[in-house]
Amino acid sequence: MTDVRGTEVRVPTEDGTADAYLARPADGAPRPAVLCFTDAFGVRPTVREAADRVARAGYTVLVPNLFHRRGPAPVVELPGFIDAEARGEVFRRLRPVMRELTPERATADAGAYLRWLAELPEAADGPVALTGYCMGAGLALRTAGAFPDRVAAVAGFHGGRLATDDPRSPHLAAPRITAEVYLGHADEDPSLPPEQIERLEKALTDAGVRHRCEVYPGAAHGFTQSDTASYDAKADERHWAALLDLLDRAFRPGAPT
């Protein structure tokens, strides 16, 4: 088991400084980098634990506060456990914050995170992997399209609104993506109905993107988030297997899976 060091760091962006969590093996050696885009609830204890788990597998992981323009994470008060009742109130306060993170701002921020990782001694030279959850899945797809030379692999889980009629929908980044893509969809997710899954799959296929899209039976939106009522332990473990397998293919060709 690899010992892990986790620290709070600050990343310069075009609009100030983003607070972030950095997890990496404690020996300080350069490792392949993983940039994680969180769900709307942001950086919190369960997210740090997940980053540590990826770092224990031999990676350097950066988890930025996506809403840093509103201040350090969490930008709204979060209960220790987000049940259905608490979720409504939390999102009432988060929606204005989420609207402020336009695709243009998010892409500019992603460029800043990638530049920061490129200069980090604990991050190996070369492209990085992206992983995203809920809203973060869309951000990961957009980032892969905006910076194709910097991204080797993309994983997204229980993403919402990935293939809408919006002219800025994440699926429209597909023609510019050169990374391998894995997407694990929630089965019971009104934010990503079957017609959007089909549209997303077609966009990736038509663009020639190496990808796999899977629907996790019975899993609700947010199934990886253990501090919410949507958590599904079986689906979460499936997510971990898929994510670590993707990272192995990206950075350790020929490694057993």
UniProtKB/TrEMBL annotation:
<dbReference type="InterPro" id="IPR029058">
    <property type="entry name" value="AB_hydrolase_fold"/>
</dbReference>
<feature type="domain" description="Dienelactone hydrolase">
    <location>
        <begin position="19"/>
        <end position="249"/>
    </location>
</feature>
<dbReference type="InterPro" id="IPR002925">
    <property type="entry name" value="Dienelactn_hydro"/>
</dbReference>
<dbReference type="GO" id="GO:0016787">
    <property type="term" value="F:hydrolase activity"/>
</dbReference>
<dbReference type="InterPro" id="IPR051049">
    <property type="entry name" value="Dienelactone_hydrolase-like"/>
</dbReference>
<keyword id="KW-0378">Hydrolase</keyword>
<protein>
    <submittedName>
        <fullName>Dienelactone hydrolase family protein</fullName>
    </submittedName>
</protein>
<dbReference type="Pfam" id="PF01738">
    <property type="entry name" value="DLH"/>
</dbReference>
